[in-house]
Amino acid sequence: MIQVFVYLHVLSAILMGVYLMFPFLSMRIQALTGSAQFGFLSVLFAANRAGQLALVIALLSGGYLVSKQPYSVVWMVLAVVLFLALGGVTGALGSAMRKALDDPSGSKIQDQIGKIKSTSVVSGILFFLIVTLMKFPFYAG
Question: Is the C-alpha dihedral spanning 97, 89, 84, 58 positive or negative?
């Protein structure tokens, strides 16, 4: 059973890897215009949704895996705080993208582009910290 949860956990971590690319991809939004900008932002919005689903799967599978190993309380608290922070930031990112995509002509994109770029950078940093924490866990004892 543990192997199934490890597989789900790793698969979701791979899918969340999109957050490492978001800072670079979000910089590209400004270089595009019109329908290309709208289409590219729509793809980023879908990738964010997939990443959020992967985040939930990773949190649930990780919860099961943590119950099977003697991790320290500090490590568990850090992991939960970072996961919740990433969830909040990606929720704000999705909200900004949704507002930018309200008008199919793309006229609202410029109003939200600053927030999209800054939250993309924060989500990339948070995901990097999560991967680092998962690679180097603290064990109790």
Answer: positive
